Amino acid sequence: MNIPDTVLQLKPLVDTGLCVLIWLVQWIIYPSFEYCDPDRFQSWHRRYTHLISFFVIPLMFAQVGLHGWTIVSNPSIADGFAIFGIVIAWVSTFTLSVPCHNRLQQHGYEVATIRRLVHTNWIRTVAWTAVLASNLFS
Hints:
Helix content is 84%, strand content 0%. The protein has four helices and no strands.
């Protein structure tokens, strides 16, 4: 089965988008949480999570779809490596990042939770960077 050119063109774009986004989150956005006004943190955090979802959710689903199509159509070691990275990123998102965000939303400003979010986000940062790198070998 041949892989459509559109998939081959979109896959590195989506991977680049997620990689750039996660590095911005890791180095700028999550660390800035500590500098928010604790009294306004919950409302700011609610707005942030709502707005960032418009970028993250479509990119994550597009990445799964594009890489899924590729691995089914023409499997390679690089694509297997990418799928592994995507799985790590998704598991980390829903077992580490989402619970931290939920806690921040429920309890408000908590330095320990913010630092846990920054610390555990390295897993997603490395995973999505590795997925992008896999494009060099596919």
